[in-house]
C-alpha cells in the first residue's frame, strides 16, 4: 500500500533569520530574476494582528489558499473546568501544546488542529514554555524558542506540505512527540472518533484522525518524513505503552462501523544526539494516506527549509502586489495588507496533486482537469464582503468557487452553508451559498452555460426547501452521539415562509402547546426572525439565478418569498418612541400575534433597563423564548442569531425601497438609522458575539456590516462617511488585539479592505456598489487584464466627507452607486474630500 520516497541526506543549516522586517533580507530572491515580484510589500503584513482579543486568528505560515496550515497551539490551564487542554493560539498565552497542521482562521471553534508535533529533550514531553521574546511571525515563516528544552522550532509550508525544523541544544537527545488525539477546545465538543497510526520506515510515519465538532465525521490523513532516521520509537495507545508499530483502523467507515477502534495515540521518536537540526515534512490528504504520500512526494524541495520560505514569500508577494497604495499611515497600510492576506487564507484548495478529492457524500472523486475542489466556506460571514471582494480582484477564482459549490451540491445533494473539509456542519443561518453563486453569475454571466444556470437553480431550490426524502442516505450525519444534524443544513424555515409569509416564532412548539410543530425536525425551526429575514434575501438571490436560467415560474415564486421580511416589522411610533424609533423587526406567532413584551416594570421611559429592579417586578418569565425587548441579546436557538433586533431590523439589503416603506417612509428610515447609532450601548451586553458598539450598531459581528452604508439612501449620506470612518479607526488596529470580533475566515478583513477603498456592495447578487470614505490618497489594483485606480483629492484624517465623486469622469448614480462593470472596464473612481458635511446627494 505504501511507497517510500528517497530521503535526502543533506541537512541545510539555518543561515539567518528569514522574513525579518529589514527589506534587504528579503531582496536576494528578486535579484536573481527581475520578473519576480518585489517582497517589500510583505513588511506590511503582521500575522500576529488579531491573535489576542477576539480575532481568533493564528500565525500559520500558510501559502495563499494553501491546504495545510502549520501553527502553534497553546496549552491553557484554565480550559475544561480548570483541567487544562490544548487551546487555539492566543499571543498572551505562553504554554505550547504542539504545532498542529490544520487550522480554521478566525472562527473560534475547535475543529481541525490535527496531528500535533512537539520537539523536546530529556523527558520534558508535556507543555513547554514559549519564549515570547524570540517569537517571530512573518509571511511564510514562524519561529519560537522553547524555554525548558532550549529547542528552536521553525515552521513554513508549501501548498500541501508543512515543514517544521527543530534545532536542539548541543549534546542533547533530539526527540519529537506526535499527539494524534490533540483535541483542541474539547469543552466545545471536539472529540477524536478514530485514530490510525503506522510506522512506515525508520524516517517515516503515517496516520489518520476522524474527529467531530462542527464537522461530524471529519477525517484527515497524514504522511511525514524526517530528515534523519529515528533510532527510538515508542507508542502509547489510550495511555498505555505498546510495542506495536501499527494501531487503529486504516479504513474506518464512520457511522455504523462497529469495529473496535482507538481514540488516543501518542508516539515518541528519538533521533539521538547530534549537531544537526531535525526537519520534518508533513503532507495531508482528505482521501487517503496514499494521497498524503503522493502530495509529499510531489514536493521537490528536499529538506531545504529556507528555500521553501523564499518560495512561500514569492507566492504571497504576487498576491499582495495586486495593490499599490499612496498616502495613509504605516498603521493604515499594515492593516490593509494584513487584511488582504487574511482574505486569501480560505477557501483553500482541498484536493490531492493527482486531482482526487473527497466529495460531500464522503466518497473519493476524481477532478476534471479544469476543476478545483475548495474547502472552508464560512459563507454566513463571507457572502457579505469577502466573496464580493474576490469577484473584483480575483475573477477566475470567484468563478471557480461558484462551480465548486455547484459540484458540492452534485456530490452531497444539497448546498453547504458552512463547509468544512467536505463536511456539512449545518452551522449558522439559511442557505448563503446561493448569494455567493448568484453574485458571481450576475457579474460574469458569460462564464457560465445554460446548463450551469439550470444546475445552480436546482441546487438553490433544493437547498431552500425541506425535503425529508433526499437525505435518507446521508448516513454520516445521522449520528446517535450528536443527534440528527442533517436538518440544520436544510430546515423548514423556507416552507413556513412560503405558507405564512414569514417564519412563525412558535413553529417549533407542539400543537398542544399552542404551536404548529409537525415532527421532531420542527425543533430546529428556531431563530425565526433571523432566518426569516436572511432567507428572504437568499430567496431574492435565487430569483436572480432563475432569471438567468430563464425560468419565470421560479423567478416569480422566489421574488414573492423575498418579501417575507415585511411581516416582522412592528410599525408602532407611539410604542417605540422611547427608543427614538418607529418600530422593530420582532418575532410573530403563526396566528399573527406578536410575542410578549418584556415586563414594563423593568424598563424606564427610554426603554433602558431599571437597576435595581423595583420591588415586586418579576422578570423570571422574561428569560423564556416568548419575550421581546429591543435590547435583549440572544445567541442561538431563540428568535435572533447572535444579536438583537437593533441589528437585525436592517437585514433587507435586496429591497431597501421596500424596507423604507415598511419603516414608515423616508423619514422613518432615517429616524431608525439615527436611533440605531445613538442607542444605549450598555443596555444588554450579555452576548459575547456582540462587540464593537457604536450605539447598537455592532462592528464585531456580521448581521449589520452593511448598515452604515444605508445612509446613502437617505437625505444625510454624509453619515455613512462618518460611521465608516469611525468604525475603521476605532475597531481595526495593527496590534495583537486589533480586531474587534472574530475575523471569520476573511469577512472582517474584507469589510476593512472595502471600507479603505471607499466603496461597498450592500446587496450581493446586484452588481452595484455604493461609496463610503476612502482611506488612502491613491490605490491601484489589478482587475482581470487591466487596472482600476481610486484617487482621493484633499484626503486627510480630518477630511472624512465626500465633496464630490466621479467614476471614469461621470457622476455616480442615485445613492452614490456605480456598476461592477464600471470597475472591470478599468478607469478611475475619483473622490474630492472635505472637512465639511456636504449637502449634495
Automatic annotation (TrEMBL):
Keyword Coiled coil: no
A Pfam family: Glyco_hydro_92
Domain Glycosyl hydrolase family 92 N-terminal: start-end pairs: 44-285
Segments forming domain Glycosyl hydrolase family: 292-834
Superkingdom: Bacteria
Stated name of the protein: GH92 family glycosyl hydrolase
Signal peptide from the UniProt entry: 1-19
Taxon lineage: Bacteria, Pseudomonadati, Pseudomonadota, Gammaproteobacteria, Vibrionales
Amino acid at each position: 500500500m505504501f511507497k517510500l520516497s528517497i530521503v535526502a541526506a543533506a541537512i541545510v543549516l539555518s543561515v539567518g533569520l528569514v522574513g525579518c522586517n529589514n527589506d534587504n533580507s528579503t531582496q536576494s530572491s528578486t535579484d536573481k530574476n527581475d520578473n519576480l515580484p518585489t517582497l517589500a510589500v510583505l513588511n506590511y503584513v503582521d500575522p500576529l494582528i488579531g491573535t489576542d482579543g477576539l480575532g481568533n486568528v493564528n500565525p500559520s505560515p500558510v501559502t495563499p489558499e494553501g491546504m495545510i496550515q502549520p501553527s502553534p497551539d497553546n496549552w491553557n490551564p484554565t480550559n475544561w473546568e480548570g483541567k487544562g487542554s490544548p487551546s487555539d493560539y492566543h499571543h498572551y498565552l505562553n504554554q505550547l501544546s504542539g504545532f498542529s497542521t490544520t487550522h480554521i482562521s478566525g472562527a473560534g471553534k475547535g475543529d481541525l488542529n490535527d496531528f500535533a508535533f512537539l520537539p523536546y529533550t530529556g523527558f520534558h514531553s508535556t507543555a513547554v514554555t514559549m519564549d515570547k521574546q524570540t517569537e517571530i511571525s512573518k509571511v511564510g515563516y514562524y519561529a519560537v524558542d522553547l524555554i525548558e528544552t532550549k529547542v528552536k522550532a521553525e515552521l513554513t509550508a508549501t501548498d500541501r506540505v508543512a515543514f517544521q525544523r527543530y534545532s536542539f541544544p548541543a549534546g542533547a537527545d533530539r526527540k519529537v512527540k506526535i499527539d494524534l488525539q490533540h483535541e483542541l477546545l474539547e469543552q466545545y465538543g471536539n472529540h477524536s472518533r478514530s485514530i490510525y497510526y503506522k510506522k512506515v520506515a525508520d524516517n517515516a510515519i503515517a496516520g489518520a484522525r476522524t474527529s467531530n465538532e462542527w464537522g461530524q465525521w471529519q477525517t484527515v490523513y497524514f504522511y511525514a518524513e524526517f530528515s534523519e532516521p529515528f533510532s527510538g520509537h515508542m507508542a502509547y495507545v489510550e495511555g498505555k505503552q505498546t510495542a506495536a508499530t501499527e494501531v487503529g483502523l486504516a479504513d474506518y467507515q464512520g457511522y455504523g462501523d462497529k469495529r473496535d477502534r482507538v481514540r488516543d495515540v501518542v508516539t515518541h521518536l528519538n533521533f539521538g544526539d547530534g549537531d544537526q537540526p531535525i526537519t520534518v515534512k508533513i503532507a495531508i490528504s482528505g482521501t487517503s494516506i496514499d494521497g498524503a504520500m503522493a502530495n509529499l512526494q510531489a514536493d521537490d524541495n528536499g529538506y531545504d527549509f529556507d528555500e521553501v520560505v523564499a518560495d512561500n514569500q514569492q507566492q504571497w508577494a504576487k498576491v499582495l502586489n495586486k495593490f499599490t497604495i499612496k498616502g495613509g499611515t504605516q498603521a493604515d497600510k499594515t492593516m490593509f495588507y494584513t487584511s488582504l492576506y487574511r482574505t486569501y487564507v480560505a477557501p483553500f484548495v482541498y484536493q490531492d496533486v493527482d486531482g482526487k478529492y473527497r466529495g460531500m457524500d464522503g466518497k473519493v472523486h476524481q477532478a476534471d482537469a479544469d476543476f478545483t475542489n475548495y474547502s472552508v466556506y464560512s459563507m454566513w460571514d463571507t457572502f457579505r464582503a469577502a466573496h464580493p471582494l474576490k469577484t473584483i480582484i480575483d475573477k477566475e477564482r470567484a468563478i471557480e468557487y461558484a462551480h465548486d459549490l455547484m459540484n458540492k451540491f452534485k456530490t452531497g445533494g444539497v448546498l453547504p452553508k458552512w463547509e468544512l473539509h467536505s463536511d456539512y456542519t449545518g452551522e449558522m443561518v439559511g442557505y448563503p451559498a446561493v448569494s455567493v453563486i448568484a453574485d458571481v453569475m450576475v457579474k460574469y454571466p458569460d462564464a457560465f452555460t445554460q446548463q450551469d444556470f439550470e444546475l445552480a437553480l436546482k441546487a438553490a431550490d433544493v437547498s431552500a426547501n425541506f425535503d425529508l426524502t433526499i437525505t435518507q442516505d446521508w448516513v454520516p450525519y445521522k449520528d446517535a452521539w450528536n443527534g440528527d444534524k442533517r436538518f440544520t443544513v436544510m430546515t423548514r424555515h423556507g416552507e413556513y415562509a412560503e405558507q405564512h409569509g414569514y417564519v412563525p416564532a412558535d413553529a417549533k412548539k407542539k400543537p398542544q402547546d399552542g404551536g404548529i410543530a409537525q415532527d421532531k425536525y420542527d425543533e430546529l425551526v428556531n431563530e425565526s426572525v433571523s432566518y426569516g429575514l436572511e432567507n428572504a434575501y437568499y430567496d431574492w438571490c435565487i430569483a436572480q439565478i432563475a432569471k438567468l436560467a430563464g425560468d419565470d415560474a421560479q423567478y416569480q415564486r422566489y421574488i414573492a418569498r423575498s418579501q417575507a421580511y415585511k411581516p416582522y416589522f412592528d410599525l408602532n411610533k407611539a410604542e417605540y418612541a422611547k427608543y427614538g424609533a418607529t418600530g422593530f423587526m420582532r418575532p410573530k406567532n403563526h396566528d399573527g400575534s406578536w410575542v410578549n413584551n418584556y415586563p414594563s416594570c423593568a424598563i424606564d421611559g427610554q426603554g433602558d433597563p431599571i437597576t435595581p429592579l423595583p420591588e415586586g417586578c418579576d422578570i423570571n418569565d422574561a428569560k423564556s423564548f416568548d419575550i421581546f425587548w429591543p435590547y435583549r441579546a440572544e445567541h442561538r436557538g431563540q428568535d435572533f442569531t447572535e444579536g438583537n433586533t437593533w441589528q437585525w431590523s436592517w437585514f433587507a439589503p435586496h429591497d431597501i425601497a421596500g424596507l423604507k416603506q415598511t419603516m414608515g417612509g423616508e423619514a422613518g428610515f432615517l429616524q431608525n438609522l439615527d436611533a440605531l447609532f445613538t442607542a444605549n450601548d450598555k443596555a444588554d451586553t450579555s452576548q459575547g458575539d456582540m462587540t464593537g458598539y457604536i450605539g447598537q450598531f455592532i462592528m464585531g459581528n456580521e448581521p449589520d456590516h452593511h448598515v452604515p452604508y444605508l445612509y446613502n439612501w437617505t437625505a444625510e449620506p454624509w453619515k455613512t462617511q462618518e460611521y465608516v470612518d469611525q468604525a475603521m479607526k476605532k475597531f481595526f488596529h495593527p496590534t495583537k488585539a486589533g480586531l474587534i470580533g472574530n475575523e471569520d475566515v476573511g469577512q472582517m478583513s474584507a469589510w476593512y479592505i472595502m471600507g479603505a477603498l471607499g466603496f461597498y456592495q450592500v446587496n450581493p447578487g446586484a452588481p452595484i456598489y455604493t461609496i463610503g470614505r476612502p482611506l488612502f490618497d491613491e490605490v491601484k489594483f489589478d482587475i482581470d487584464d487591466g487596472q482600476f485606480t481610486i484617487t482621493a483629492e484633499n484626503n486627510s484624517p480630518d477630511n472624512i466627507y465626500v465633496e464630490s465623486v466621479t467614476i471614469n469622469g461621470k457622476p455616480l448614480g442615485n445613492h452614490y452607486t456605480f456598476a461592477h462593470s464600471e470597475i472591470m472596464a478599468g478607469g478611475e473612481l475619483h473622490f474630492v474630500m472635505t472637512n465639511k458635511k456636504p449637502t449634495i446627494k
